[in-house]
Amino acid sequence: MRILFAGTPEFAVPSLRALAAAGHDIVGVITREDAPLGRKRVLTPSPVAQAAEELGLETLKANRLGEDATAWAEARGAELGVIVAYGGLLREPLLSLPNHGWINLHFSDLPRWRGAAPVQRALMAGEQDLGVTVFRLVEALDAGDVLTRDTTSFAPGTSAGVALTQLSSTGTEALMRAVDLLAADPSAGEPQVGEDTYAHKLSREDGRIEPHTVSAAAALAHWAGVTPEPGAYALLGEQAVKLTELKPFAGDVPADLAAGEARLVGKTALLGFAEGALELSRVQPAGKPAMDGNAWLRGRGGKAELA
């Protein structure tokens, strides 16, 4: 099938590679423009752009899909459009250009968690069974008919970065089944059923964890959802301390460990919450490199108060 692909981040790359490996004719790739990365802010092609170059595929880099992008896409003569986390909206007339329309791999069990950050918001809500859905793209947000779906279970404390990496594999398999389904039956698809929820894009403020107000289980879920981006943190006075890695603690929590208190218990750095405690494995204090939590606390006399 002649396919026009749109995607940007690393977890969209497996889908692009799988479509090419299956023998589909990838007539073009749309991805976001090069972005500044790293401390030196070097302009860097997106992971999808890099993969497309390796595969020898014609690529359009655009942050907005206006008239020029539509004309470029129309000239490709695609039968099907496939989008995986491109990072922008597709509207008419681009939406109707391919003969079979567009399909979208979305990282949630639609209609739950429509929107920009489905895996992150699901993890923050304490969900551990995360879905992928391949559906027909329509103008309404993530609302089209479903072609295929799948679900993967994750252990508590699995970060969004790790979950997305695994779901990119599960999602690629669902996407390939959807393409085969459309090739056999161009009218395939079932309406979404159930209550919809919305996954708002994350901001830096979403990364804040307030130990005095949440349980250890809720804090671990929150940490998982905001890791690696935008990153979890708590306040030490007026400065942010990045909570690079939190882990469940299986030992006995000292009865006098207060919420917000970080303390060395033996060789383990513990952080107390409104209920329970977590191991403070890695932290990054303001203006310093990341370090083990126990090393950080030893440098502070074995104790710190986080809010």
Uncertain regions spanning at least 5 consecutive residues: none
Strands in their spatial order, largest beta sheet = 5-2-1-6-7-9-10
Strand content: 25-35%
Give the assembly state of these chains: single chain
- Classify the secondary structure makeup into a structural class: alpha/beta
**Cα gyration radius (Å):** 22 Å
Q: What value does the average pLDDT take?
A: 96
The end-to-end distance, rounded to whole angstroms, is: 55 Å
Helix content bin: 10-25%
- Overall 3D shape: elongated
- Number of helical segments? 7
Topology as a string of helices (H) and strands (E): EHEEEHEHEEEHEEHEHEEEEEEHE
Number of strands: 18
Describe the main β-sheet briefly: 7 strands, mixed
Write the layout of secondary structure elements.
Layout: E1 2-7, H1 13-21, E2 25-31, E3 35-37, E4 42-44, H2 47-54, E5 59-61, H3 67-76, E6 80-84, E7 102-106, E8 114-115, H4 118-124, E9 129-136, E10 146-153, H5 160-184, E11 198-199, H6 216-225, E12 233-236, E13 239-248, E14 261-265, E15 268-272, E16 277-284, E17 291-292, H7 293-298, E18 303-305
Parallel strand pairs: 1-2, 1-6, 2-5, 6-7, 8-11
Antiparallel strand pairs: 3-4, 7-9, 9-10, 12-13, 13-16, 14-15, 14-18, 15-16, 16-17
